[in-house]
Amino acid sequence: MSEKVKQLPYEDNGEPEGLNATLTSPIAADGRPEPGKRYIVPARQGRAVRLAQGQRLKIINTYGSQVCDFWAFNASSPREFLSMEHLRTWLSRLTPVVGDPLVTNHRRTILTFLEDTSPGVHDTLLTSCDIYRYQKLGVEGYHDNCADNLRMALKAIKLRTAEVPSPLNLWMNNPVQADGSIGWLTPVSKPDDYVVFGAEMDCIVVMSACPQDLVPVNGKDCQPADLHFEVI
Amino acid sequence: MSEKVKQLPYEDNGEPEGLNATLTSPIAADGRPEPGKRYIVPARQGRAVRLAQGQRLKIINTYGSQVCDFWAFNASSPREFLSMEHLRTWLSRLTPVVGDPLVTNHRRTILTFLEDTSPGVHDTLLTSCDIYRYQKLGVEGYHDNCADNLRMALKAIKLRTAEVPSPLNLWMNNPVQADGSIGWLTPVSKPDDYVVFGAEMDCIVVMSACPQDLVPVNGKDCQPADLHFEVI
Predict the structure, then answer these.
(1) What residue spans carry the region label Disordered (chains A, B) (predicted)?
(2) Is residue A2, in this structure, part of any structural domain at all?
(3) Predicted ipTM?
């Protein structure tokens, strides 16, 4: 990896860059994991991981009710990324389940959904929290947010993106009602539930332990928690 | 407007640029409409229109069963755009209805949904058709597609974007079932149904008369049709 920040085709978008330790805490300088090692995604932070084709990523909901905002980018062409609108179109379904391909904006499989010990309640409809969300909720000053965590996690391994694709919100529980309204409920997962994704191409994945502490998406007590992951 | 192509903060993304007349048929060099004039969006093509705050855009489904892929960008900061994932989050609902704000990725209102003579069946879940979609459908060579129409329509008025936001698919009929599956049905709109959007900020909107002719999203006969619009 180059020592200087690798300029992806996108310029930085000039938004607030984020102020938490995500930026200074990569799992390795180039994001390459040590196979079998258990890593933490601390509450309110994000981590980027470089996966080789054939590797498997296990994401663990250690405390049971933490939402993980999840993204994946083609390692050699980051303009290609996991896209929720392409995924729904591909599957003709709102939410992926075990066995499904996770497809990019180029309609190629970047990951396969291999295992899920939870009841399978995940969200593809809602955007990441961002600084604008917390401003609307009345927060003054900075608030950790998943969009900034994505940018910081990538920058921590010397990558940049201005694009914040719509995330796969693991364990987020926002059911669609018959009238098209979207509910806001707490996760139904339990401690140590996990999902496993298999990399179908070399890719960079990012996980954010959602810092939402004003709306109970991460459990009723509004206390964001750590997540863990392993690459196998 | 500068005579040379104005470089937006994004670089062009290197995808096929598109081969139809969208690129050479802007409504005006700078996209500014003549108020009250009826404009065409020819079948399979796209058009970009520059709206001033306070203007209203009327989009007419002239033949009744044509889907219109629709986007909107902040005129002064095109990294801010109408975002389906932010819209669903804002509304806690899959689809906007008359009276709703249409919000951007900065969670601001760019347009207000003012009128709708159709039954209100629109889609926010599915991505635009793109060259990859038609390749997967077995098309050899180029096929018109909404993603390219967006890029060409912008370029025709000397703007560029590599970002293809998830579109608001006007009149597209893809109902969500109780099990989370997404149906593929034909529009329930009738000839001359229209929607009206009011511009809440200076913005650039793009309409594409979806060229899908292999899957019956634009009516049972798979014949893409013209749309029309007026700015008032």
Answers:
(1) 1-35
(2) no
(3) 0.93
